[in-house]
Amino acid sequence: MIELDIFVKSVYDVVKMIKKKANRRERNQGMNWIRPEKRLALYLRDGLACCYCGDTVERGVRLTLDHLRPYASNGSNNPNNLVTCCLKCNSSRGKRSWKLFAGKVAAYLNCGVSAAKIIEHIETTRCRSLNVAAAKVLIANRGGFTAALHGERS
């Protein structure tokens, strides 16, 4: 009887874990996983530029957020685990570690930027504090997230 109880409990725990992961995935689909003001605050913290290649919003790049420790590997949405990243870099990184990817970007850019410099930049950037209140004000004054990001007024 005790063995059956242990088996039932372990099956219950596995089912519970699967449901938890499914709910986490559902909750975090698309843009729902982060509030617009926090997203903008992260972009502002990082200078509205990709932390890997340095491409900027002024040059028309589409910014995204990259989880340094991937969300799929239980990485958090904590600001020190998130950096601004262009869509090209974010799509290209794949399952590589961000430090390995920094080396690949440095080689690809071939403009004198070393992997060590990219890594150092990311390490210092991710430790800066966020100003979510300022991002909120900017969104309100500009009439929305997109207008705030691109410096437009409604």
Describe this structure in words.
The chain is mainly α. It has two domains: 1-33; 34-128, DNA Binding (I), subunit A (Orthogonal Bundle), CATH 1.10.30. Helix content is 55%, strand content 6%. It has a two-stranded antiparallel ribbon. The longest helix is centred in the N-terminal third of the chain and has 26 residues, at 2-27. The model has no long low-confidence stretch (mean pLDDT 86).
List the main descriptive attributes of the protein structure presented here.
154 residues, 6% strand, two-stranded antiparallel sheet, 2 strands
In short:
By secondary structure, the chain is mostly helical. 55% of the residues lie in helices and 6% in strands.
Coarse structural class:
mainly alpha
The value of Rg in angstroms is 19 Å
Low-confidence stretches: none
- Give the name of the CATH architecture of the largest domain: Orthogonal Bundle
CATH class of the largest domain: Mainly Alpha
Question: Which of globular, elongated, flat, extended, rod-shaped describes the shape?
Answer: flat
Largest sheet: 2 strands, antiparallel
Domain count: 2
The separation of the N and C termini measures 69 Å
Number of helices: 7
Percent strand: 5-15%
The counted number of beta strands is: 2
SSE topology:
Blueprint (H helix, E strand, L loop, with lengths): L1 H26 L8 H10 L17 E5 L14 E5 H7 L4 H12 L5 H12 L5 H11 L2 H6 L4
Antiparallel strand pairs: 1-2
Helix pairs in contact: 2-6, 4-5
